[in-house]
Batch of 2 targets.
Target 1
Amino acid sequence: MNKTKKPKPQTKTINKMTAEEIKETVKKGYAEVATSPKSCCDASCDCYEPFTGGGETLATSLGYNIENMPKSVTESFAGCGNPVALSNIKENEIVLDLGSGAGLDMFMAAKKVGNKGKVIGVDMTPEMVKKARENAEKLGFKNVEFRLGDIENLPVDDESIDVIISNCVINLTPDKPKTFREAYRVLKPGGRMFVSDIVLEEELPKEVKESIEGYVACVSGALEEQKYLQAIKDAGFEDVTVIDKTKSRYIASDKIRAFKPKNK
Amino acid sequence: MEILACPIDKYYPLELHVFEEKEEIVAGVIICPKCSRWYPIRDEIPEMLPDELREEKDELPFLRKWKNQIPKKILTKGKPFNIKTEIEK
């Protein structure tokens, strides 16, 4: 592990930070992941098994076919699943990626929707959006669009999206119920959401729970599974199912599918 | 543009003013006619962040740079930042 790449230690604990301060810290953390790549789940706490293999190895281990993908796409990859592989994205559909990072999941989805479909990525870190846009250009994708934005406040019209995907990002939002309400709002009736994310399996040690570094590393911001699933249901989603789950110490990576009802 | 909405009040459709265009819109401004918020397009990327994630020091230079092309209502009354005092000097 390269210690020099870690964000500077923060003096404040999470419970003393505002939602904005947390977002700013997350933004800075992922600006570093964009410019000097490391994995999301690479915290300096020993509460779980950190993944240290780098983005390429991580993506391959999660079943991505990264053949022909330039390093700039995979090196900043920080997912904990492969939502596009679990989804049934069809040709011509409009897909929205919440927290699109350097774009790997978007490009996987872009291949499925084809030229008449579209994949929109929203990410709040300018360095990531810039990198993703450059990657799209390198790969020649014409059906992808990027927006610098906050997934708690989506810059997307109501009922305009067929499929939402998100990979290891919603745990980083201070207001998860709001994020799911926004996801619900922008989905068309009958739309689907495929999320891969970290949930808590048991209570974290106090020092990890309060650590902003642990938060940026996708651990301390995670909710217990039941609360996470309840937040999705409370937003209005139906048929909320954990389709796959990988357990680690204290945390698990859940792969979740949910639907917006057809008739409201 | 067809599914772009204001992140604050979710208003749709938004106004688009293009300043520089190649294959894509390189620079421009997106305006919410309902709440008077403006969002820059810089280097082909629409920056649609909510107020609390925007910083005045990064945003005012954009208004100054394009002040001849940005509608006056935004220069003087735009949210979350405007250059009313500079314009009315």
Note: The first helix of chain A runs from residue 19 to 35.
Target 2
Amino acid sequence: MAETKPIAGARPMAPKPMSPHLSIFRPYVNMVLSIMHRVTGVVNYWGSLLLTAWLISAAMGEKPFNAVSAFIGSPIGLIILVGFTWSVMHHMLGGIRHFIWDTGHGFSLPTVRALSWVTLFGSVTLTGLIWFTALSLWGNR
Amino acid sequence: MVHGAVFVGEPLMPTTYRTDLKKVRGLGSAMGGPGTDNFWMQRLTAVSNIFAAGFLVYAGLTLVGASRASVQLFFSNPLHAVLGLLLIISVTFHMKLGMQVIAEEYAPHWLKVPCLFLNTFWTFSVAVACTLAIIKLYLGM
């Protein structure tokens, strides 16, 4: 878009009014989850590296694959993977919550709070279920 | 606002009756630009990511502690290979759009374009590398 020419005599633009935000409010669950949605998005962005490394090492050959598998199976690797699982589940449920809002529903405060808590507990529950299954399968192997 | 009439020394009658809005309408990002594509694709890939997450959990639970040979066997199934490729496309596209919003909102002005470029380079590289890996595994190589 072409910029309009400054007009002689026009007043210089006043600085945009800023208000203190975030820091002065008691955290509400839906506010915390809004931030969490973005944070888990970034975590998923970088957490996918682990998946990428696993897939590419499998394509490369026995040696790289065993190295990556050993890292994933190590205590640090497992902690990262559990965290990644929770982050993905949380972002997914948060996304579904946003889809409900996209339809124009669920904006009453009690519903907003309820959806937030469902997202939080749901993500922990799903992560627990996935890892309970994974570890029992691993133990039987 | 018709800015012709605001300043001292201007004729009282505005030189044109066209409002600023009328002049710029249709010249924004909707005009040949991305328009609402980013918003739309973010939601489209969010939905496909739910299916991708389902496949990811299934693959993860199937391949817990698996050898490289079992990973090759898993992806030699064309259904698994196709779902894996779809996962890569859906997830990397969603990653790209999500990080783009973060760069647009938080990156300082001089870093904005480099961040946007790097984000695109990175997510497309991940997509291509993972795609090649899945094809290689599918072919049993």
Note: Chain A touches chain B through 37 residues (CB under 8 Å).
